[in-house]
Amino acid sequence: MTEIWIKSNYNDEWHQVDVLEDFNYSLNYSVSDISQPDKRKASFSKTIKLPATHNNNQLFTHIYEIGVYSNFNPNKKALCKVLSGGAEIFKGYARIISISFTNGVMIYEVNVVSDSGDFFASLGEKYLTDISFGFYVDRSYSTQIVSYTNTSASGTPVVFPLINNGRIDVTGLSPTINCDDVLPCTFAKTILDKIFSDAGYTYTSSFFTSTDFTDHFIIPSLPAYGEIPTKKIDVSFTFSIKNTSATPQPLWIDLNRVPVVSPSSIQTETIHLTITPGTATYTGTFTSLNIEYNDLIYFDTHFGVSCSILNGSTVVIADNDNGVTGGTNTVTVSNSVDFVPSGTIPFDTINSGSGNWDTGAYNLKGAEIEFSNYLPDQIKQKDFVMGLVKMFNLYIEVDKVNLNNLLIEPRNDFYASGTSVDWSDKLDLSKEIAILPMGLLDSNEYEFKHKTDGDFFNKQYESNFGYGYGRYLKSVDNDFVKNRNTVETIFSPTILRQATGTNLVLSTIVQDDPNLSSTNQDSNVVKGNIRLLYYDYINIDTWSLTDGASTNTGSSVPYAGHLDNPITPTKDYQFGTPDMVYFNIAAADYPISNLYSRYYHKMITEITDANSKLLTCSLYLTPHDVQKIDFRNTFYLMGQYFILNKLIDYNPNSTQSTKAEFLKLKTADAYTATIKKINIR
After folding, report:
1. Residue ranges, the chain, pLDDT below 50
2. What's 242's domain CATH number?
């Protein structure tokens, strides 16, 4: 007996729903279609019809009543499970699609689904720029230096790799680069984890938690994505003053905001005090002072009370003037300063010294700058995740214990994590057994590529060769089909170029030829498409980072590109070897390990090999067999090992066998590649 249970989404009560007397339905099970490697299928999905019985109406709280409030929310998930013979053959979510009336009979049409598609549906149309990361960005010189030792997204998730973005000048030996032209980037895992957590999902993945992915893959920023916005901030300053003299002391303190571009006060606040003798501390507050990025803040004390601004126990700004005119110190509020909504500034007497405020710097703090300002706009979160899925050939299966947890691994690891199941005795020999040579599939070409972009070098490369940088084309010797199956990610190729007169090899995303006399100008900035780059801190050549006041010179470079190391590369994160590169490397030294060889070769070989077989047969499956189906497993049939491609129209109410589709596994599929000769520009 088959039972359908739906959990109310308003009171968490389970209801066994009534079904039609002639109720008969089937379920399809699949994780991926081998004929379409760019697609990922639903594990379970079905639309069923339920009668408007008293029981069902109570579950759906008479939602069919027009103008009557219903507790059941059709926009919210409702847990659903299907039991057959006591075995749970389906677990997922139910959603009301429509309510129809025919000849006075009302029917609920309900879609039940349990697959990764529900996760993608939950992302809706949200963009990467809609993410609130909860951390702010400090673009200062010192912060950039510190970030170069960062090796993990689990730490401070911002790094500053050297990328020729149209503003930095990397010509000549030992170039000096201004820190203001080096933009922050964050790890792909930081973005991925935020997408999942905001959607109410988790994942289990050895790949996404591996050091290779966690510590190295970043999303670069480009100047055209947007600068730090000019933003007003309400700030309050709390201070304390004590008078150690024998007589009362008058005091006033002025706090003025002056924009850098205009030396005239926009806003000022003054506090007048008479400080009585003693050791007790007087506390007061400046409130609601609006400041902006790139503002100057002036502190001015009068009438002989000496003060200091402390950062912890360290005096960072001190007024040592005991005259009636007081002294003034300037604090620059810039886009290189961290901000928090409020700060405490304690004042205390200074009993010695003379002169005005010292020149020490104090980092005023105010509003956060969301990292989303540095991400490309118009990139949907679901497209970002699917970009990773396609790039690394990831397979996704819903965790049967926790539907909000997804099991995600590259295809080869996905199947390697399963076990072997013997279904030999379940074969229905009375039904047709079809063996289809895989060469009879509908494609003789498989193309793998990143999305093309309009920056200078991508346009130049595509103009020269007729296709994008790092694309791979697998051709199958087949006389009968002439179709092309294409896998394309949302990420664009980022071409590595060697700086003139040095072995500094940088990702280069510019509008015009970087050999122009000046690259540090907005005219060379391009609003490029989203990229995914490999980040590391490697030894290349001498270079310097400066903020005008301080300079750091070293021979280690915060690198980001499509190779793991442009000098001694072992891995390429393009699908195929480019026909031309823009830096010095011998063809024999270019890595043969790329996205295709690591993540797609085995699958495509199994699909296209002349000896590969697609087996279609029928199986006698019990509800408990279906309950335990795991697409990561391999299945033993007819003396061979297969992976399950599809289970078609399984009907728990039927004693008939169920049609299934399997792909025969190859045993000799080691990757061997021929080094491709490349041109160097």
Report:
1. 34-35, 37-38, 229-231, 233-237, 263, 303-368, 517-520, 668-675
2. 2.60.40
The reply to whether 246 falls in a domain is yes
Q: Look at the alpha carbons of 209, 374, 369, 296 in this order and tell me if their dihedral is positive or negative.
A: positive
**Residue 35 in domain:** yes
pLDDT of residue 184: 87
Q: Residue 80: which domain range?
A: 2-117
CA atoms within 13 A on the CB side of 210: 11
Choose the final residue of a domain: 309, 344, 379.
344
Q: What confidence score (pLDDT) does residue 527 get?
A: 83
CB 128 within 8 A of CB 191: yes
660, 646 contact by CB (below 8 A): yes
Which tokens belong to 552? 């750091």
Chosen domain end from 117, 134, 150: 117
Q: Which tokens hold the place of 197?
A: 């957590």
Give 17's Cβ-side CA count (13 Å radius): 28
**With 0-12 CB in 10 A as exposed, 13-18 as middle and 19+ as buried, what is 178?**
middle
66 domain-assigned: yes
Any domain includes 218: no
- The confidence score (pLDDT) of residue 610 equals 73
Instruction: Let me know how long the chain is.
Output: 681
Domain count, the chain: 2
Spatial distance between the Cα atoms of 665 and 643, rounded to a whole number of angstroms? 7
Q: pTM score, two decimals? A: 0.75
